[in-house]
Amino acid sequence: MSSFRFVRGSVSPADHLAPLHDQACGGYVSFEGWVRNHNDGRDVQRLEYEAYERLGVKEGERIIAEAMDRFQIEHALCVHALGSLELGQMAVWVGVSSHHRDSAFAACRYIIDEVKHRVPIWKKEHYADGDSGWVNCEACASAATQSPPATVSGGRAGQ
Amino acid sequence: MKTIRIEYFAALREHTGVSSEEIATDAQTVDQLYAELNGRHDFPAIGQLKVAVNDEFGDWQTGLADGDSVVFIPPVAGG
Description:
The structure holds two protein chains of two kinds. By secondary structure, chain A is α+β, with helices and mostly antiparallel strands. Chain A contains three helices and eight strands. In chain B, a hairpin with a 2-residue loop joins β3 (50-53) and β4.
């Protein structure tokens, strides 16, 4: 099984934990990302996740491999949700096991930070006022203020 | 002319109204392809796009060959 996986709907860590169990390991650290009810001062009701899965799995596996290289850990996995998620559901889970706890904490932090920055996953927030928007999308942010359609004829905003 | 397959995700998918399309083009690079597609779709200002060619990250000067697939990657927001 891949060290980075996508699943439909909320992540259930119990479905993925088995490869982390190792009698040589005295430490297990996990991170769970939950759907919260607010972002940037707006009331969020639910989220939708979408990914470019073929590249996402490759990049996620690269991140896990980097963590295995950099930190003294034995096993690491990351699972990310796709599709519609309700408040409180689990959007992402990282699990790391190691001989000693320090490296497991550090590796877990490294993996979630890199996944958030590098893996092609997008999140659409649905707000209490009926509006919705893609997170980190400039045009979506300006559309949300009810200004005229924010199209730019010059092309992409940069490289 | 070469045939290029383009996949769209998130805000770009919603803007174009399609998940993918194939076009016949003379574009030599990803940059030229983007300019041609922007003429058709008038892409919104989404932020700094990255690009993938054949399911690997590329850059805007990556050359295109017949049958390549291209994805323009909006700013990501996982987690």
